Amino acid sequence: MAHSALGDGPVLDQSIIYGAVFMRGQPDAISKSFINCSSSDVEEICRELAVHHNKELSLLEHEGGYYFLVCASATGITYIAVGTHSENKTGDLKTLRSFLESMRSKFETAYGAQIRGEAPTSQLVGRGYAEFDRVIKEVGQDAIAKNPRHATEKLVDHVMDVMIENIEKVLERHTKIEIICEDANSLRQESMKFHKVATEAKKRMCWKNYKCWIYIALAALVVLLVILMIACSPDFSKCK
After folding, report:
1. How far is CA 130 from the centre of its chain?
2. Neighbouring-strand partners of residue 80
3. Which residue, 53, 75, 121, 187, is most buried by CB atoms nearer than 10 A?
4. How far apart are CA 84 and CA 69, in angstroms?
5. Contact 65, 15 (CB under 8 A)
6. Of all helices (H) and strands (E), which one includes residue 18?
7. Which stretches does DSSP call E strand in 29-143?
8. What pLDDT band is residue 156 in, cutting at 50, 70 and 90?
9. Sheet of strand 77-84, all strands in order from the earlier edge strand to the far edge
10. Helices 89-117 and 148-232, interaxial angle, to 10°?
11. Which pTM value belongs to this model?
């Protein structure tokens, strides 16, 4: 069955995007849920597959970048899981099949008695099982989380976060070091200025001290001269 490319834009880089449960041959889903993103084209293709496919298990690869895994059970219920293409085709298909099997198991566990008690009829149509939508979404998210590719991407994201955090810490420390260096340089300049001022002050004090001793010496000489002039007469005739 050929389909045109999907027109809702690029899909998210996840292995599962949609799951649905149909009554075989009916276009309206009993229960459905988008896991990561929504696409009206995906939903329309699933409607068409539910009507025309009756094989126990079929895999269709869509040119728009999707895998459609269809399972028509013996009880008349059709399960469809939709996933995206990636480089790890085997891993994605394994995850998609795990999602479909888990969705089928949980649905049959919850509603198996009703299904086995009567052949699927129109009473299953009309969103009577809408409460199962949440279960489909949870099962899909759990299958994605267990996908090795998803775990690797999560680990890579964690490593990148740690690297970014370390780089930020290094830059922060570098900034602090620059601030400390600037403070140290400023302190060194202030210290040099203080040393220069202190040296000049010391020189001025020494010069003042020298002048003081000179004045004292001159005063002592004058006093001595006066004493000699008094004792020996001004012409020093008494001291000859």
Report:
1. 35
2. 20, 70
3. 53
4. 11
5. no
6. strand 18-23
7. 29-34, 58-62, 66-72, 77-84
8. confident
9. 29-34, 18-23, 77-84, 66-72, 58-62
10. 130
11. 0.54
